[in-house]
Amino acid sequence: MNSQGERQDRRMRGPTSRDVARAAGVSQSTVSLVFSGKDSGRINPATRDAVLSAANALGYRLNASARALKLGTERLLALAVPNAANPYFAAVLKAAAMAARARGYAVVLINAGDDPGDGERLLESLAAHTFDGLIVWENPWTPTAGGFVPATVVVADGMEPGDAAVFIPAATMVRSAIGHLAGLGHRRIGRLGFDMAAVPFRARALAFREALAEHALPFDSRFEIEEAFGATASERLTALLSGASRPTAILCDDDLLAPLVYRAAARLGLRVPSDISVVGIGDIDLARLMEPELTTVAIPADIVGETLVEAVLERNEGGGAPPLRTIETHIVIRGSTAPFR
């Protein structure tokens, strides 16, 4: 875009911290430090003056909404998740907010997305606010907050913890689900997942194949279907369940996918669990509202929320890297699974 076009675009959307950084010849993290008042001893006066001059020339002002949120002595933590529409994250947020409140913090939920381009937008959001800590669910990009946030912890919801502070082991969850179904005599087990790039769902796909192999069960690619988040029906699943050699059990990567199996089964006159067993992952409230109630692997949202706050505040207030915390999951057996017959 030429300079005239850039000026027109800036007038339409208002100047951002990125514009200030470009004009001053510094990084966005430097701009954030200046406007958060955390530049003392970290940025030389000449650089600070350059940032302020560029901001003044562009008419940039720090987003006032962030300061409005910081009432009294309460400080802010950001919880960045792949999909804020998933009710599981609402439960995590509730628990995290309660734990944070006891320590004088509030928690803000940020929809980080699962597209690599969302990382830059998240950093832009962080630059426009003042946060004292960031919790981010592992993604294909998993940005580091750099100078934007004093303390950052990553949640690894996948196969390996890596450098994460909190680990939700996909292999353990999927292994317990497959072990339960195998113990009931099921050998043709399918998987219904989300068609998303988010690390948790890629990890659960890999863990599914590994768990089948551990139980000497065959993997059939025809039995593996992925649907978009928010899908209300699956024609592919209906076609699969109508086949002569259909799976006798389905593992859903998320409890939200289980209604698709129930619906497809009902359309075909199949009954859950006598004709098809169903297992979910998450143990959200929906699992207990279904008929029959859903067997699922519980990822305790209350413990996850409290653990995330503990980890980020330990880093924020202690300065060092917190020890790895692994979340213990467990299968909750309800009425959606039965022995194969």
TrEMBL record:
Q: What keywords were assigned to this record?
A: DNA-binding, Transcription, Transcription regulation
Where are the annotated segments for Disordered? 1-25
Q: Which organism is it from?
A: Rhizobium puerariae
Keyword hit for Isomerase? no
- Name the chain's protein: LacI family DNA-binding transcriptional regulator
Q: Which Pfam families match?
A: LacI (PF00356), Peripla_BP_3 (PF13377)
Q: Which PROSITE patterns match?
A: HTH_LACI_2
Q: Where is the composition biased (Basic and acidic residues)?
A: 1-12
